[in-house]
Amino acid sequence: MITLFLILWPVVVSLTIFIFRPKISKQIALLASLVEFILSLVVIFQFDGSGAAAFSMNIPWIASLGINFHIAIDGISLLLVLLTTGLMPFIILSSFNGPRQNSPNFYALILMMQMALIGVFTALDGFLFYVFWEMALIPIYFICLIWGGENKSRITLKFFIYTLAGSLLMLVALLILYYKTPGQHSFDIQALYAAGRSLGAAEQGLVFWGLFLAFAIKMPIFPFHTWQPDTYTVAPVEGTMLLSGIMLKMGFYGVIRWLIPMVPLGVTDWGFVAVLLSVVGIVYASALAIYQQDFKRLIAYASIAHVGLMSAGLLTLNKIGMQGALIQMISHGILAFALFYICEIISVRTNTRVIASLGGLRTNAPILTTVLMIAILGTVALPLTSGFVGEFLLLNSLFQYNFIIGATGGLTIILGAVYCLRAFQYMMLGKNTTTTTSISDLTGNEKIVLYPIVILIFVIGIHPDPLLKISEAAVGDLLELYVNFSAKTK
Amino acid sequence: MVNINVLITLIPLLPLLGFLIIALNVHKISHKKSSYLACGTILFSFILSITVFTHLLSLPADQRVLSITLVSWIQTSGFSADIAFLIDPLSSIMLLIITGVGFLIHVYSIGYMHDDAGYSRFFSYLNLFVFFMLLLVMGANYLLMFVGWEGVGLCSYLLIGFWFKNHDYNKAANKAFIMNRIGDLGLLLGVILIFINFGSIDYQTVFTNPSEVEVTTLTWITVLLFIGAMGKSAQIPLYTWLPDAMAGPTPVSALIHAATMVTAGVYMVARNNVLYALSPFTLQLILITGLATALFAATIALVQNDIKKVLAYSTVSQLGLMFVALGLGAFSSGIFHMATHAFFKALLFLGAGSVIHALRGEQDIRKMGGLKKLLPVTYITFFVAVLAISGIPPFAGFFSKDEILAHAFAYNPFVWGVALIASLLTVFYMFRLFYLTFYGTARDEKQTMDHIHDAPKSMAIPLIVLAVLSITGGFMNTPEVLLGSSWLQKFLSPVFASASGIEIHHLSHTTEYVLMALVVALTLVVIGIVYVQYVKKGHVPAGEGRLTGIQKVLYHKYYIDEFYDIIIVKPLFWISKTGDTIVEALAIDGIVNSMGRLVTGSSNVLRKLQTGSIGFYIFIMVIGIIMILTLTTLTGVAGQ
């Protein structure tokens, strides 16, 4: 029941705001997101740490087609639900003094988005998963289209079509599996698993690519990433936060839940190509990040690089790598939020995001500078920050997978420092420029948003065990599914 | 009596606490309070280190290992890393050096930094550095060492760029961080390789059965770890950041870039002596790298005119010498030289800082001169340090350097020869620096000279204490041939016991005496030459434009920075720019866009329906989905 409530609650509030258009919609949205967060904490307290799916609900939806409204939460889902519910209040709060603070539509869309995200992370029915997956696209599309920056219609259209194309491939793949299910056919995840496993290697390969492309576009992985820097840059900051902080994790979640156990032979045959693309993406995006002139765009490329490492580690099918990817998703969500928020703060205060026209911000804004430094340290994975735990586990699995690929992926350690420190130096250090002479430091509201984030960066870095424990059993069970199958076929 | 584990835990915790208190109140806390807090916490850590050290001494030699596990840090899927400390003779010596020298430099900073606007910030960074450095040497597993390793790198970055308004300093800071990161990648991969092969990253587990792992794998591991050491300890080819790091305040150069952080690589290799003992190839590599670095950096130092740059190249060279010792398998000799070097090099830097302070920021030795009478305390203590680094008996450097040279001679006279040349070059540039700074006529502006005053008390006392240590430090390991007891070597022997497989050649006493006499005699000759050149003839180095041939090459540091710029930095930026403007925009996105156009182009038939409005598309999509669902539900119902 609680899972259903997690999905329905944001919708109810969203519709209320949309219909009644109250003056205090931002406060209502914040309150609603906090309630949602507390609900997810309740789930954590009731969670038993085992790998089994709990808090489940399974009622027939379209019985004739074998479609059920089947939702549940296991350790893996729980982490992503937690990321969604945890980040949402921060995203809403960060908009409080921004240009969208008085728009009920804006908050209605954000909450609608939350519903879809939770749905994606909890659905255990193929059709339901697909529906939520597509539903997530709609609010973010409108957020970008209505409140975006320059060239918004062209860029959002491309984003929309690109991801829609990906989802259509996923739909086709799911339908192929659906028609392989016995008897009346069913979209139930277990039935789809069984169907996928009954396929020959070649067919599994086909399904693999159908699903993987959808996920790869979402994350995005090289070379399917070109929609991302444009969209991240043009989207209003809350949109960027939603996209990078939470939405791209849908792709990873898809790989974990809907790809690896579904077509094990496909993963065995094609996983290497996927890992290779991911690692190429790490180096490629890191290299491009160095040249970026716009700080927001730089963070976007940095995100592609980090995503590449996560997906590579995930696809090594090594428990350490999967655990690393999961904790890195949480960390990346927090860090991306912090970086984009700081970028927004700077660009609102100085009217520019161009690195070269900034400089010397540290003189007048030492706290802002320190917070950015900490976020950057997390991004370059300095030990004792949240970024390190995941990156270490990921590199560990990648190195076990293949010596050379691991070392290549490891270049992120060096290149990350290059682009981050360069940007930091030219924006924050040095002498004041004309744009930065009268800048003020963080306001109270900004501190309320950023201080907890800073604390989280350190807490996760120093004591990651609780998070790691949540998903450990579920990851183990999932991999067993995969390993057992591959062993049998060999 | 308080539990010893508590005391051990407090050693790193106190500086961390100091950092937190100062950093969180950096704009409110008074200068006095922050310096008392910073110095006080380090002093306490020093006292605790002594307590732990004496406790260790009170135990029988083979039981001098204390290990405590505080909490689990990362634990998942077969991988686990704890926050755990290991105190043994090696780490206890390191603790004493870090907290002892660290405390002296903290005190010195009170005087040196007293006018600086970032006074409290400076002390908070300094405390944070000590915390990470302690973590580095106390950590009982590779990952915790890596935490310290990266942490000191961060502090080094923050302190090099301490005066952040100057972009040259910021660039130096970035360079240091990035170059260190190159090494860190090697180190991290080495640690991962250890985990893969040993199933654990705890020192004690790994060191118990190293021979179970294949030699090829061990070679990979040790080489990767050594790459980390190259970065942190500024060895060829990753040394160029250290001279640039002199952009930081001088106490930082003394503490981080001379006495402690840069010796982390030496510590790490010594810590892993068990693994290195089984990889002769890596030991060879270390020996060659160390030897090359010692000689190469010494030649550059010959013609530099910035007082801190000379000392920086000297540090690189001396670190090379330490690695020579490690490469020879003489681990305790390497640690011994590291300890004495910490004393006299810290003293040299602090002395240089005192000179710079007195001359209001002047760092060019061509503009110094005649300071002997004006700065008596600085002069005398600096002289002691110069004698120590030159290896004049009975100063500290003599014993430690002699030990390395003796091992080198026993191994191979050629290695000895190269190391000797590096040592003699050291004597040359150190005395050149010394004479140009303190002798001859005063060459700085009269206005500065009129107001000159020697180091204030807070700066003078550390100078004096370090001078005493530079005189007496060598006696901790006086060799038997000089009627000593080799205390340090015996104390450290349990740590290096399993590495005893490496054959260390021993010389007859007669040979040792002859070598010693020869080295000292040559040293005196070099000093004589320098004296004639720079004091008798009063020679002052020429400006850059008048240099010729080899001098010019040396002055420009063999153009290595320019070389790296051409082969690494420029290509990287070129790749970045080309990638962004050509590959990304034209190739990848171009294909995506043309695919899009292909689809739209081929759908001419449906053009009438294309209003171009996504809202319309979504509307149609949603309607479609609803209709499908409704229809199927209806048919489903009807079917039943």
Distance between the termini of chain A: 42 Å
Helix vs. strand class of chain A: mainly alpha
* Global structural class of chain B: mainly alpha
Helical segment count of chain A: 20
Total number of beta strands of chain A: 2
Radius of gyration of chain A: 22 Å
Number of strands of chain B: 2
Task: Determine the strand fraction of chain B and express it as a percent band.
Answer: under 5%
Catalogue the unreliable spans of chain A.
Answer: none
Largest interface, C-beta within 8 A: A-B, 67 and 62 residues
Write the layout of secondary structure elements.
The complex is a heterodimer of chains A (490) and B (640).
Chain A: H1 2-20, H2 25-46, E1 54-62, E2 67-73, H3 75-94, H4 104-122, H5 126-147, H6 152-180, H7 189-198, H8 201-218, H9 227-234, H10 237-247, H11 249-259, H12 264-291, H13 295-315, H14 319-350, H15 361-364, H16 366-379, H17 386-401, H18 403-428, H19 444-462, H20 465-489
Antiparallel strand pairs in A: 1-2
Chain B: H1 4-24, H2 31-58, E1 66-76, E2 79-87, H3 89-112, H4 119-138, H5 142-160, H6 167-198, H7 203-208, H8 215-232, H9 241-244, H10 250-259, H11 264-271, H12 273-277, H13 280-301, H14 307-327, H15 331-358, H16 376-390, H17 396-411, H18 413-438, H19 446-450, H20 457-472, H21 487-496, H22 509-536, H23 549-555, H24 560-602, H25 614-639
Antiparallel strand pairs in B: 1-2
Summary?
The complex is a heterodimer of chains A (490) and B (640). Chain A is mostly helical and 490 residues long.
